[in-house]
Amino acid sequence: MATLLIVDDEQSMRQLLSLVFGREGYEVRTASNGREALDLVRREPVHVIISDVKMPDMSGIDLLREVRAVAPDTAIVMMTAFATVDTAREAFKLGADDFVQKPFDVDELKTIVRRVLERLELVEENRAFRRAQQQVGRLDQIIGQSPRMQALYQMIQTVAPLNSTVLIVGESGTGKELVARAIHNLSPRADRPFVSVNCGAFTETLLESELFGYRKGAFTGATANRKGLFEAAGRGTIFLDEVGEMSPAMQVKLLRVLQERKVRPVGAHEEVDTQARVIAATNRDLAKMVKEGAFREDLYYRISVIPLELPPLRERREDISILAEHFVAKFCAQTGKRLRLGARTLELLENYHWPGNVRELEHTIERAVALEPTDEIQPERLPDAIRNYSAASARADFVFPEEGIDLFAHLESLERAYVAEALRRTGGNQTRAAELLHIPVRSLRHLLDKHDMKGLTAQLRSEAARGAE
């Protein structure tokens, strides 16, 4: 529970506010003057200070200035019977969080304190998230706070320092190259080249010359020697995207490179050493292709020393709003616009099944930002497929995975999604959200603890409060 410090030279005011906030469940401390309050702040953490402005020896404004120097995260609410525009302006300039004039309504002050605490909670959650992002290194382009993404961040951290080959598996548009770049950027090879090639974009002969290079005269048009990407990567990283599209002949040649750590340029008699780390990626089921004889088993085991699986966007729906806001900010910065997502628009985005994954979401937001004439992105700027998506179409798209499903994890995801939606529809009001879910408020609070969603409640309340203003 938050700790409040009441600072007032009037004993009656200290007693009144101690009683009021004590009944609310807060830890309450009191001080009769600014110096006493400052000493207490230096000794122990205080979340919110409620201080009178006019006090002997040290005014509330002076206290505010000192507290900002020693405890910058402490929120301060100023109160005075002598409020003036200049006093309020100075208080806010020095970092006061709010200002009330005596005599005040006790319920109003309780609301102010509650709002200030929710803001502090949001600030701390944002800091914690930034710290987590910093801990996993240069992952700023991989957006997501869902449990599966957090596990992915940890896995990237673990494999980055190694030299082992990595196989990234995921549907198109999930961000496989971003993950490959993150592994490279976190590795000891970060200051060396990262080269990327889409194996499905070349014919067999073109892919061979692209990867291994060629010598002058090797074929028509080969007027000079050219290094291949393996040689260009040096001691860096080479990313083989869509490796499952390689022809059988190219699979044999790649296997030899991985085994011997040597490449032979087209038309050359000598071999060239390669020290590049290989990261491969595919949106196909290579294990199934091995069984069908479409992919070499020995190559499969060579490239999948460390497999990483990227979840499709529909399996981490809690990240959709985060990604959407990220892309809005990105494209607003490019276009000079200032836009926000409308509530109904965000609801449609979160309801959609995203077959094109993050890439499809990014293109959707780019289009919406370009077309939106108002200051809020409206549902009309979304494609018909998203606006008209319904539970019926979702059922039509339903596919039970061949490998089965983690039912409890899936149900947990659905539970979290419904709780989040109920809170969004009620602006963070837990009582009304519980009514929508047909459960007791106590059960809803249990679910908020279980899914670590208290921050969402605070955020929605803050947004609702700003909207009301």
Provide the descriptors you would attach to this structure in a database record.
469 residues; alpha/beta; Rossmann fold; Helicase, Ruva Protein, domain 3; five-stranded parallel beta sheet; 21 helices
Give an overview in words.
The protein is α/β, with parallel strands linked by helices and 469 residues long. The chain folds into 3 domains: 3-130, Response regulator (Rossmann fold, 3-Layer(aba) Sandwich); 147-311, P-loop containing nucleotide triphosphate hydrolases (Rossmann fold, 3-Layer(aba) Sandwich); 314-468, Helicase, Ruva Protein, domain 3 (Orthogonal Bundle). The protein has 21 helices and 16 strands. The protein has helices at 11-23, 34-43, 60-70, 85-93, 106-135, 147-159, 176-185, 204-212, 229-233, 248-260, 286-292, 297-303, 320-335, 343-351, 357-371, 384-387, 391-397, 407-425, 430-437, 441-450, 454-468; strands at residues 3-7, 27-31, 48-52, 75-80, 98-101, 166-169, 194-198, 213-214, 226-227, 237-241, 262-263, 272-273, 277-282, 306-309, 340-341, 376-377. Helix 3 (60-70) links the parallel strand 3 (48-52) and strand 4. Helix 5 (106-135) crosses helix 21 (454-468), helix 13 crosses helix 15 (357-371) and helix 19 (430-437) crosses helix 20. Mean pLDDT is 86; it is low at 131-137.
